[in-house]
Amino acid sequence: MPSPFVSAPLVGSDPNPDLKLHPGRWKTALRLVESWCDSGRLPAAALLVSRLGMSSGTYLFGRQSPAEGAPPIRPDAIFLIASITKPIVATGVLILAERGLLALDDRVEQFVPAFGQNGKHAVTVRNLLTHTSGLPDMLPDNIDLRVANAPLSAFVEGTCLCPLDFPPGQGVQYQSMGFAMLGEIIHQVSGKSCSQFLQDEIFNPLGMSDTALGAPASWFEGADPKVSRIAEIRLPEEQRQAPGWNWHSAYWRKLGVPWGGLLTTPADLARFAQMMLDRGAAPSGRILSPATVAAATRNQLEAMREVPADDRRCRPWGLGWRLNWSAHSANFGDFLGPGTYGHWGATGTVLWIDPDTRSFAILLTTQPQEPHGSELSRASNAIVAAFE
Questions:
Q1: Are 78 and 229 in contact (CB under 8 A)?
Q2: Torsion of CA 151, 112, 276, 316, to 10 degrees
């Protein structure tokens, strides 16, 4: 049976009635994204919405590259989804926890002994998953490492050496380097690279055949290599003069950083989102238990008494998932319910999942959106406004 996530419907067509989308409002949402691509505000965008187990299919807009005269975006386009990678890596950690191979309150140094130096002895796996470790987002020599085309191990080594900005569990600070360490924990516990573990335990079982954490060698082979399907991003200023390490470089595409290196399609990402919405179940078998999904998408900060009250109450985190910050428009928009969770990515991407309405939305663009995700949040508002 063909996947319900793959089709590419026309913008002018009415939605499947089983989706329970208001036809006029849905067209308004689609035309909003289309207008941004027509004007060049976004070089390209892909949109997929699912409700009650039914999918809109993938809508594609814009060009394969921001370059003048670039061809239309390919129907099989692949996107670098940046930090939406994080909850998927977190899922890998939770799979290991389900098997009894680690517990969330285990100290990181138990798996990576070198990490315990410079005041990091007490940092736990839970701290990494909830951004309460005190680690920095990026290393001080982040750019130098990229310029040198350093391996992933160099980022792990740098994280092991760096001090904390505050004691673990006493604050919240977004920390990509925490996910560098989670990737290394997966490696140490499973005996496989983080990339291979996710491939074996998540992507292959879910049929995510166009997904990889770091493009493998096979993606570069042939007359029309798979990497040619990757939609090019409008690079931020600091990357435009850095062809050796920017988001378009072979180095970055191959590196597969656990904090932001996932390459995928809307249809593949929808398979992962549907698994979460189905409480860990998938056609090929269970990926996570319902109890694990519930824990991953519950406010983990609530029980951390030394975390500032405003963070616990207003800016909650699950295990790798950002929960809905209802007083913030950024990325998720203004109208989603309190049970919503998801993530955004610096390349201009967002995924949100609302178990209360049995819905999710995927919007992947090639226009960096940090820090506020203006187009992402406005599009989310228009999508939710179309829900009947």
A1: yes
A2: -100
Select from 182, 172, 8 the least CA-distant residue to 83: 182
SS3 217: helix
Distance separating alpha carbons of residues 59 and 75, to the nearest angstrom: 9
- Of 265, 268, 260, 263, nearest to 204 (Cα)? 268
* Residue labelled with tokens 């989308």: 21
What's the token pair of residue 346?
């610096």
Cis peptide, bond prior to residue 371, ω within 30 of zero: yes
Q: 3-state SS string over 304-316?
A: CCCCCHHHHHHCC
Give the whole-angstrom CA distance, residue 109 versus residue 117: 9
Phi, psi of 61 (to 5 degrees): -135, 155
Question: What is the Cα–Cα distance from 47 to 73, expressed in whole angstroms?
Answer: 13
Residues making up the chain, counted from first to last: 388
Beta bridge partners, 46, equal 60, 364
Q: Which run of H or of E encompasses 59? A: strand 59-62
Distance between CA atoms of residues 156 and 6, nearest Å: 37
Packed helices 374-385 and 23-39: angle between N→C axes, nearest 10 degrees: 160
Q: Which helix (H) or strand (E) holds 80?
A: strand 79-80
Please report how the helices 176-190 and 152-161 are oriented relative to each other, as an axis angle in degrees rounded to 10.
Answer: 110
264: part of which helix (H) or strand (E)? strand 262-264
Facing residues of 169 across strands?
Answer: none
* Chain segment 41-86, per-residue pLDDT in tens: 999 999 999 999 999 999 999 999 999 999 999 999 999 999 999 9
Q: Which pTM value belongs to this model? A: 0.96
Q: 371: burial class by Cβ within 10 Å (0-12, 13-18, 19+)?
A: exposed
Digit-coded pLDDT (tens) for 233-255: 999 999 999 999 999 999 999 99
pLDDT tens digits, 300-347: 999 999 999 999 999 999 999 999 998 888 889 999 999 999 999 999
